[in-house]
Amino acid sequence: MYKNYSLLLLSLLFAVFVSCSNEGSNQNNNTGQVLPAVEAVQAQFGGLPLEERLSGVVSAGNQVEIYPRITAPIEEVYAETGQRVEKGDVLVRLRDNEFRERLRQAEASLRINLAQQRQARAALGEIESQLRRQQILEERDLTSELEMERIRAQLESAEASLELAMAQVEQAESNVEEQKDALDQTLIRAPISGTVGLRAAEIGMQANTNSRLFMIGDLTRSKISVNLTERMMRYITAGQTVRIFSENLGDTVLTGEISRISPFLGAGSFSTEAEIDVGNESRFLMPGMFVNIDVLYGESEQATIIPLSSIYRHPQTGETGVFVAVNFGMEAEMLEDLEGNQLSNPTDVEFIPIDVIARGREAAGVAGIRSGQWVVTVGQNLLIRDQSGIARVRPVAWDKILDMQRMRPQDLLREIMNGDATQGSASNL
Fold this sequence. Notes:
It is a single chain. By secondary structure, the protein is α+β, with helices and mostly antiparallel strands. The chain has eight helices and 22 strands. It has three domains: 171 residues, conserved putative lor/sdh protein from methanococcus maripaludis s2 fold (Beta Barrel), CATH 2.40.420; 93 residues, Beta Barrel (Elongation Factor Tu (Ef-tu), domain 3); 73 residues, Orthogonal Bundle (Helix Hairpins). A six-stranded antiparallel beta barrel has the order 3-10-13-12-11-14. The chain has a five-stranded mixed β-barrel with strand order 1-21-17-18-22. A four-stranded antiparallel β-sheet has the order 2-15-20-19.
């Protein structure tokens, strides 16, 4: 969106300066009519890099939020925002009196159950001894069948009592471990090594399982998350090169590659998430920062390449095309060597329809014109208004036009009004 506004604003402001300058300069044709002045670049031949611009959100490497697993007041806080911590370091201590008491009770209950288990085991041993004696008496026909059945019933009951006692011991041991774990949770430790941020823990605060106390992440590594639509997944894949930039980074452009792409589309959104892992030793990227991502996913077929600003929709015919400065090659070479980027002599300018083969972020591959021809990038509206088919042309370099196209509207307006972007445009017309 910014790019389209920049191109329109550039054209309109250039037209204003040119019109004002033309009124006071000798740039007439044979009829005395004031000729329009335009800027042009030379079309090139080659492949057009295919890019997809996306927006992403930065997070720190292995970024995690710290929540308590129990509910208790905070008694001590050992970590500050910006502090480096190692895995296992204690960050917060919660009040543990209640948890120590629960552990003491659980340990007492375990001792009781262990004692009951020993009693049950002793009772079973006694019944087993009685059974052995009765079996000896039975072999000698000195006991009755009724007495044997009674002893066997007692044995079965004693075995059940021992099994119950053993289960109670196991349950009591599990409760002790649970209480030990709860007591250990009163010391909240760093799950990873990293830098502490977004501290919310304060002494006296009632912490619960919904209370985020800290965020910790490795600031030397960053992860950028971007959304991909179903259409993008047809040509964007893991491993493709990306360029990362932001207004906050200035002229710094980072490079990386797409690390992974989720194969699952979100319900209703029909989009998925891709992740980009980037080294951040210089700390250019900050967690939570929004960045622009250019995904380089290929190259178009070989074609004539022109800046996007040169593509013009003719208001009378509705055709898409470019204005070409006819027979302008040799004079352009002479003018480029002069100081101040001089305007050419009156030159024929012709509108030529084109077919756009591939469109990139700053340029397009087209059919209908040849490489080496000079195409107008600024001032097409002046040519439409004049309708003489003649103009004075200033040759400009590709990098100048691309820089203009990259500028945001407010920045472009500021530079033009300060004279930075039009110093060579208005003063030499």
